């Protein structure tokens, strides 16, 4: 399958943020090494998936906010938001319609393709 390694990395990042198994300070450098659009995509998907009514929203969204408190991560997310692939995705898809693996596969294929 194409871009398997990149998909594993993206899935791992998503998992770290979702499950909170590592301190935010440990996640920060991994995000800093990532494509800004990927950083934005991950945060956007998490915000939609873990909306206010979700039982895990406080923890997951708290970690997103905590990561965005790092200026370097916030800058990556702002830069990623302006990426043409983000505009394409938002015109063509809905974050809520895609399950985790399908989301990762789609965005990594587009980012790497």
Can you characterise this structure?
The protein is built from seven helices and no strands. It is mainly alpha-helical. Helix 3 (36-49) packs across helix 5 (71-81). The model has no long low-confidence stretch (mean pLDDT 94). Helices cover 74% and strands 0% of the residues. The protein starts with a helix and ends with a helix. It has one domain (4-112). The protein has helices at residues 4-19, 24-32, 36-49, 57-68, 71-81, 84-92, 100-112. The longest helix has 16 residues, at 4-19.
Keywords for this structure?
single chain; 113 residues; mainly alpha; 7 helices; globular
Give the structural class: mainly alpha
In which range does the helix fraction lie?
Answer: over 70%
- Morphology call: globular
- Number of H- or I-type helical stretches: 7
Percent of residues in beta strands: under 5%
Domains counted in the coordinates: how many? 1
- Poorly predicted spans: none
Mean pLDDT over the residues: 94
How would you sum up the major sheet? none
Quote the distance from N terminus to C terminus. 13 Å
Q: Which series of helices and strands comes N to C?
A: HHHHHHH
Radius of gyration, in Å, reads: 13 Å
Total number of beta strands? 0
């Amino acid at each position: 399958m194409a871009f398997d390694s990149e998909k594993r990395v993206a899935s791992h990042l998503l998992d770290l943020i979702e499950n909170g198994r590592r301190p935010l300070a440990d996640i920060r450098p991994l995000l800093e090494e990532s494509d800004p659009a990927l950083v934005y995509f991950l945060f956007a998907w998490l915000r939609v998936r873990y909306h206010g009514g979700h039982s895990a929203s406080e923890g997951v969204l708290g970690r997103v906010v905590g990561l965005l408190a790092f200026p370097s991560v916030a800058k990556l997310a702002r830069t990623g938001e302006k990426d043409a692939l983000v505009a394409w995705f938002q015109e063509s898809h809905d974050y809520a319609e895609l399950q985790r693996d399908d989301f990762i596969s789609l965005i990594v294929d587009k980012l790497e393709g």
